[in-house]
Amino acid sequence: MRYDIQYHATERERKLAEDREENFRGTARVSLRRLNFKPEHSRDVDRKNIERLKRIFARQGCLRLSPSNHVPAIITEQDLKVALQHSGKTLKDLLNSAQDAPLKLTLPPNYMLECLHGQHRILAALEILTPKEEWWTVDLYLSVMSPEAKAALSEEYSNSFNFADGEIYGKIRDYQHRNKPFAARRWRAYLSKGKQKALGQLLIRERYKEAFDTLLVVRGLWAGPGFSLGNMQEVLAMRFDDEILYYLDHIWQTWSFILGGDADLMRKTDRFTVETLQLRAPQASGDDLSQLKILFDLGKLFPEIRDEEKRRSIWNNIPRIACLIPSLYTLFEDLKLLSPCVKIIQALIERPFKGSLHDMIEQQFSGANQTPGAVVMQDTETVFNVCEGSATDQIEFGYRQLYLFALRHFPRMIGECPKKEKDRPKPTIEEPDPVTWYRFALLADRLGFDSEVIRQLKADDPYRVEARNFLLKHNPPELYTYDQQLFEECVEQMARTRAAVVEKGRQHIKPPVVVDGPGETLPRRCGRFFQTAYEYERNYLFLDVLYDATDARGKGITSFFVRRSTYFAFFGRRLPGAMAEAPRGRPPRSPEVNMTGESDGASPHNAESGPAPPQAPAAEPSARKRARRDRPMPPPPSSQEQMALVPALQASENSSSQEQMALVPTSQASENVCIHPRSLDYTFRKTEERRRLSRILSKKIWTSLGAE
After folding, report:
1. pTM, rounded to two decimals
2. Which residues pair with 24 in a beta bridge?
3. What is the percentage of the chain residues whose pLDDT exceeds 90?
4. Which helix (H) or strand (E) holds 292?
5. SS3 for 107?
6. Cα 281–chain centre separation
7. CA dihedral of residues 362, 365, 369, 375 (deg, nearest 10)
8. What is the C-alpha to C-alpha distance for residues 696 and 615, in angstroms, rounded to an integer?
């Protein structure tokens, strides 16, 4: 019997909500003296309550723009038309007015607007506000609304209207699908002007709209602070479309797998469950799995799902997720990690920007320095290998390697730095380093990309710029007199010495992904690099190391596990020469069920819940598996101990070329290419005219980068 009562209560609530949404006509500023309260909608006037509100208003002011403080009022359709004519506005203007700048509505002479709630705050405001400030924010509804809906509306406005951006987006899209424009505009009015603009930009991008709409069925993803319209304009301006869409698909596939593709279970997934599961790695981390098991057994996870068989199925799926469990919150946080890389990649492309960043960098691919059927793979900063792959692979994996270079060196390329550790000094922001940008241009050229900016960076002489800046910084011209000839000779000698430096050989150590201790805490598993993690991981951020997967399990996970999981969430796990994955941002694709990309099975789907059954990703080529060599595993470090491993990574200058070739197994001969100037037939520019042009070009490039 109890369930029948609940069913009828829910149905009544739904009908009342629909009645209100259909009759909503916008939000406006109305003079306090034109607001009227009838006894049937108001309580008796309480003078103590008025005095209490006056004290609050005197202390903090009248907060009239917050939706929780709006006054609901009813008006006939004819009276509303007359009022809009008096105001010189249209109904569209009224419906589109923003929460932080409501339209001023001028009512006809002697017309009093009937209000349903808020009598005491209006009376208090009349006694404290100056005549110029005597207005309040009113939500307008048509008077044809049912008495039940009016009563419910009067009661509800005493509650808080602090909706998350994700909840507002979901309501707007729901009403748009149901062709209820007035209701959709009512929810849109809760947004500030900036957020309304961001929403408009999002909704005209069909692929984004489709990807976000797919996730609406997972209710718990939207209730918290994860989805942010406040950051949406900045995110869209990145033009990082393909990778963001891939990440959104990754979110869908993971939660679809956990819930067995059941749309009803997705709708029953609450905010606490999502926020508890996100950033956990239940297959790799024993601590994560144990904590989730306790909460699951207590019924705190998925509390609305009570069927024992379904709960058992959900729990059987959770331990098979080996990556970090993603959410909308992790998406927006992880974009902060790659934001510097996007800016660096954009610096290689001439304006104006058109299309996605992936498309633009693809247009810069010339195929120079490439061998048909082979993909260049960077093993270390100066050593390269090749592996089998198509022309498409040359573009795709060249693009990814540019990102990895930017991720390793962004503090020396743009004015950003890792996050501060609690027990260490704050990292200093460095000036852009010409040598690092020069090496970046050489890498882009080696991977087959070409643009005017790349050619300019290659043509510059960064070592002379570096040497000259060093001498002038430590011997300011305003304090010292120079022998010009001696100065130029010194610059020349320093530049030659710097250019002749060769990278040390390194012992290639496979970085651990798990530890016996607690490992990385949840706040460190997304967002920008922390200082310690960056200094440790930058030695490993090469494709071969990222793809050198293991199924290791431990109590906790390392920062390198976090970075691999983030990389694959944005870029996918396809290897050169393997079958192409589904288009980015579009199902079907199987979730990452283990760290090697192999799946125990596809998650079931039906027509209601989403896409057709996903296909398992392509297996790693057997030749690559056979050629892979085991490397010594250091003692697994905790997040605070990882830096202790860094000095050890610089050891062994005499590592053999055979060891280096083992980094990227291939049937073809390896090519060891050092990208210091001598290996690229570099020659110094000796004429003064060449030097002058180089300095001018360098100044233009750095000025442009600074403007970015």
Report:
1. 0.68
2. 141
3. 42
4. helix 286-297
5. coil
6. 19
7. 10
8. 54
